[in-house]
Amino acid sequence: MSEHQSTEVVMAKYLLSVYQPEGTPPAPEELDAIMKNVAAFEEDAKAAGVWVFSGGLDAQSTATVVRRSGDEVLLTDGPFAEAKEYLGGLTIIDAADLDEALHWGRRAAEATTLPIEVRPFHWA
Prior knowledge:
Blueprint (H helix, E strand, L loop, with lengths): L11 E10 L6 H20 L3 E6 L7 E6 L2 E6 L7 E11 L2 H15 L3 E5 L4
Antiparallel strand pairs: 1-5, 1-6, 2-5, 3-4
């Protein structure tokens, strides 16, 4: 390999979206166990060098939709769409490929006990 060639692996960013069901949250002792699993997942992702950012979102009732309508921008209280499941949190990772991203998606689903959508960023 010449001195001008790089062995650096190009990583792609993936969004791991956590889908939260409407309704009563888990009991405190169950939620504590889930949050410990989520913290362990995040620590493992950091140790593996793939973690970029994670965060949970407030309830969908706290959302405000900002939408352009002609020459105006309108603000509407509440979520963009009513649904039985809503975006409750997210993690952004750098992964070598989709297989690695899906590995972390599985780990996130195990930790949160919730559905995880894995999507690549096309511009990052």
